[in-house]
Design goal:
disordered C terminus; 12 helices; 2 strands; mainly alpha; Yir_bir_cir; two-stranded antiparallel ribbon; 342 residues; CIR protein
Length: 342
């Protein structure tokens, strides 16, 4: 987690980064990964950074680390593609296509693309889908790292925990029938649960307030049942990602509850209509604790004119900081009712 978040800070030119992108050419830890030991563009500097992160994170030695590396890499490639650095490549769909178009010729002699081992099958995953998985990984990493650095700042830790929960719901609802994506989701959940378990042993008060990663209807489980190798040929793995899928689910549930209430009212005409549990709950006043949080590793506004990497999760930037207190848990307003329903 620390490697991914630190690399994001450098690439995005954030305050507190231990170096600037322009300094990669002079840093012995990086310039050896540049083409001919010299990075002349930001794309080449990003290429050098990806090689450094690949090796530092042990992506060549551990399949799960390889999966997480590819999630992180997809965020960089998705931003490159979105900003149209190569206009003719508008038909790019997979992670493999994006890598070969944007980075393959912009890195040094170490070709990590051929050293991913069991994670290699993930190259064929949809680039946009993988970018969404990195959002969950980033939220989990920020939860873990904020607790490590500032363990008493509960508000920021719980904010990142809630973001993790919301993104987990989105991913499950979009890919509940794709076993390869469910495998990724299960691994991310296990990483988060390991953190929760560790926290229980050291800070039971915080642990009791951390969100549990569940589906929107409250299922707390692992869902990949038959994974052996990555396979995205199934149409269920190729569906377009729907940012509004949770909203649609809530609307469907509301309509179903309304029909049930009407049916119960017709069957019991003398009984007053019972108010739903959601309606009975009063929303507490907004305004969560203002603890300082770890900088958002992924601002869309980049300093250099040809910087190409940033966080594409505009929802987090524009809405994620708005919170409503429910006991000790801070829930983004857009999913406030979702969390109550569960």
């Amino acid at each position: 987690c620390e490697t991914f978040l630190e690399a994001d800070k450098i690439i995005n030119g954030e305050n507190g980064a231990r170096m600037k992108m322009e300094e990669i050419d002079k840093n012995s830890s990086y310039y050896g990964f540049c083409p001919n030991n010299k990075c002349l563009t930001d794309v080449q500097r990003i290429g050098a950074m990806t090689t450094y992160v690949f090796l530092k994170g042990g992506a060549n030695k551990n399949s799960e680390h390889g999966e997480y590396f590819l999630m992180w890499l997809s965020d960089k490639l998705f931003k490159m593609h979105k900003e149209g650095k190569i206009k003719s490549q508008s038909n790019i769909t997979t992670l493999d296509e994006a890598y070969k178009s944007y980075l393959d010729k912009n890195i040094g002699n170490y070709k990590y693309w051929d050293a991913l081992g069991k994670a290699s099958g993930l190259k064929n995953a949809n680039l946009r889908h993988m970018n969404e998985f990195y959002k969950l990984l980033k939220h989990i990493c920020k939860t873990i790292m904020h607790h490590k650095i500032k363990p008493t700042e509960y508000a920021s830790i719980l904010h990142n925990s809630t973001n993790s929960s919301n993104q987990y719901m989105l991913l499950y609802q979009n890919f509940s029938e794709c076993d390869s994506y469910l495998h990724l989701l299960d691994n991310l959940k296990k990483t988060y649960e390991d953190f929760r378990t560790t926290t229980k042993n050291g800070d039971s008060k915080l642990a009791s307030s951390l969100q549990t990663l569940t589906t929107i209807d409250g299922k707390d489980s692992y869902f990949s049942t038959s994974f052996s190798t990555f396979d995205f040929s199934n149409s269920k793995c190729q569906s377009e990602y729907d940012d509004d899928i949770l909203k649609k689910w809530k609307e469907t549930e509301a309509q179903r509850n309304q029909k049930n209430d009407k049916s119960n009212g017709d069957n019991n005409p003398q009984n007053p209509k019972v108010q739903s549990s959601v309606d009975q709950i009063q929303s507490p006043p907004a305004g969560a604790g203002g603890a300082q949080s770890i900088p958002d590793n992924g601002a869309d506004t980049l300093k250099s004119k040809d910087k190409v990497v940033g966080d594409t999760q505009s929802k987090e930037n524009s809405k994620g900081s708005e919170t409503t207190g429910i006991c000790d848990i801070y829930v983004p307003k857009e999913y406030k009712q979702t969390r109550i329903l569960i």
